[in-house]
Amino acid sequence: MLSLASVGLKPAQDKQVELDTKKKILGAVMDISSIEEPNELLALYDKKVKSLVVDYNGAVVTTDTKGNTIVAEKVNIQKNYRFAPEDRLYPVFKFMNEKDSSKVEAYVFPMFGSGLWDWISGYLAVGNDLNTILGVAFDHKQETPGLGARITSDVVQKRFEGKEIYNEKNELVSVKMVKGEGNANLTSHEVDGMSGATLTGKGVNEMMVNYLTCYQGYIKKVKASRSSVAVN
């Protein structure tokens, strides 16, 4: 009976996972708080987002070793995390311009790491410049309520908006959540931390720099292709 129930519920569970994933991707780029109808959100996603999968070197990957088509939305970031960085698949979600569907407004990169008690994950959106953060959407399995769990709050996540992942020398430095809150003179690569949740903040920092490093191959290819077009 349990087996039959599991099989019967799987389509609904898969639909919910799909909805949650697409909601986080969109939420990293735009305000979707007013969208309550799931089908409306899924339609918006289909209209605005194009996806692909790349490897560590930034090359597009379309099929697995058995020849099956790889779908970005179905890549399990948590399972991929168990592999060496060079052996993982990296989904990329491109948020397209409303008036010109050939132009990319934002790139959304999924990431995964360890918090204080268990895993943390996130979707980081950068602008067309592949440098300026437009938004983030963090999640966690188990962090302390009111402390580390605050990484999912709008207040904390909005701190990342407008920050930059590359410095003036075009070196990847990511964005660091510093210790404590109310810090003065933060740089374009720093955000306020969370009082009482230093270890969770450290986990977020490590997750971001680790995955942005893994996406560098793709970022460099996109920038190089733009330079080539500009020259030609």
Outline type? globular
Q: Approximately how much helix is present in the residues? A: 25-40%
Number of helices: 5
- Largest beta-sheet characterization: 5 strands, antiparallel
User: In terms of structural class, how would the helical and strand content be classed?
Assistant: alpha+beta
Proportion of residues in extended strands: 15-25%
- Spatial ordering of strands, largest sheet: 1-2-3-4-5
Number of domains: 1
Number of strands: 7
Mean pLDDT: 87
**Global Rg:** 18 Å
The span between the termini is 65 Å
- SSE pattern, N- to C-terminal: HHEHEEEEHEEH
List low-confidence stretches: 143-148
Sequence-ordered SSE layout with sheet pairings:
Blueprint: H1 2-27, H2 38-48, E1 49-54, H3 77-80, E2 90-96, E3 104-114, E4 119-127, E5 133-140, H4 154-157, E6 176-177, E7 190-191, H5 198-231
Parallel strand pairs: 6-7
Antiparallel strand pairs: 1-2, 2-3, 3-4, 4-5
Give structural notes:
- It is a single chain.
- The chain has helices spanning 2-27, 38-48, 77-80, 154-157, 198-231, and strands at residues 49-54, 90-96, 104-114, 119-127, 133-140, 176-177, 190-191.
- The longest helix is centred in the last third of the chain and has 34 residues, at 198-231.
- The protein has one domain (2-231).
- Helix 1 packs across helix 2.
- The chain is α+β, with helices and mostly antiparallel strands.
- The strands form two sheets. The protein has a five-stranded antiparallel sheet with strand order 1-2-3-4-5, sandwiched between helices. It has a two-stranded parallel sheet with strand order 6-7.
- It contains five helices and seven strands, in the order H-H-E-H-E-E-E-E-H-E-E-H.
